[in-house]
Amino acid sequence: MKGFLMNALRMFRQDDTPEAPAAPVTESPKRRLTLRGIVQLGLVLAFIAAAVVFSRAPTEEDIARPAGPPAGAAGVPRGAPGQTGPLVRIVSPAAATSTLSVSATGAIAVRGYVDLTPQVGGQVTEISPQLREGGEFSARQTLLRIDRRDFDLALEAANADVDAARSSLLLREAEGDAAVDNYRILHPNKPVPPLVAKVPQIEQAKAQLAAATARANTARLDLSRTTFALPFDGYITASSAEVGQVLTRGQPFGQAFSREAVEAAVPLAPRDVETLSPLPGRSARLRAGDVTLAAEVERVAPELDPRTRFARIFLALEAPLPPGTFVDVEIDGPPLPDTFVLPEAAEQLGSFFWVVRDGQLEMATPQILGRSDDGIVTAAFDTGEGVVLGSVPGARTGLSVQTSAAE
Length: 407
Description:
The chain has 4 domains: 2-57; 87-98 and 336-405, conserved putative lor/sdh protein from methanococcus maripaludis s2 fold; 102-111 and 260-334, Beta Barrel (Elongation Factor Tu (Ef-tu), domain 3); 125-257, no CATH class. It has 6 helices and 21 strands. Helix 4 runs antiparallel to helix 5 (199-224). It is α+β, with helices and mostly antiparallel strands.
């Protein structure tokens, strides 16, 4: 550097030495002095810039000395002495028992709808306010009434037939007893023949009484059916019944569904079904907007969807939601012992992991069991000095690296 500056000074001195007289020129002395000053100033600035650049260049000693602070200083990454590989962050996971959950999206559905069908026909005399679309009703709550007068008369007639059949039976039994007594007087040591005892007539009368009783029970049942109700709590989805309308036996006039029939239908990929197997009885959580409900897997469809090749599972809810509501579902899986939970950043492109062993990268391909909110769940494996987080420029097996523990 010193030699360079000395040469520059000599050049300045040479420029100041008077030259041999030349042919006279017409240029004025003042103009010549101005041009020479500009040239000298430019040369001075160029030399100063060159001096700054050369002063910042490393010396031979600097090049020979390893970069970075002395070994053992605070904050210095670990690595072999003189190691200059890339710096990587690592984690050292601990094996534990993990619970894997599967997230999916489904919809609220109704297992089955019930047609509102009267079991007797007649004119509607009364309708409950709940017998309208959107109405909510309780089990055995009266929803409508049918004119019962015809059924009252039918029951009275059936009861009269029962009384007549009972009287006929009593008469036949009395006649039989009298015939038996007369026969024994005339034939004391002989058995009484069935025809004499009027056994067939008595059996016929008993059958007639049973038939009359059955007709009376049918009439009584029909009378009770003039009051229309359902045996479950539920909701009305459609109804065309009105007061004064004549309903026909066996012809539906509306539709309803039970609260117990409301369930969540959720499609699951076959790999998720395998992860959660066995599915029935698994606990789950459903979220629909701001509402979160507990649920339980009730059953699994035996067939895959022919278009998506997904399985359909059905969950029972602790409280019903409107059918058609989209829900986010999280299903808890079985406990998995001896597993690691690694950050998502640890997984490399190609579903493998880098681990550091003896200051060098080594590829690891453990079994990935699934993913949770905390990270990737894998079977426990030998992590060496730690698992690398993030990508490593120029990564390859055997690449020397420096490590620092991730926070």
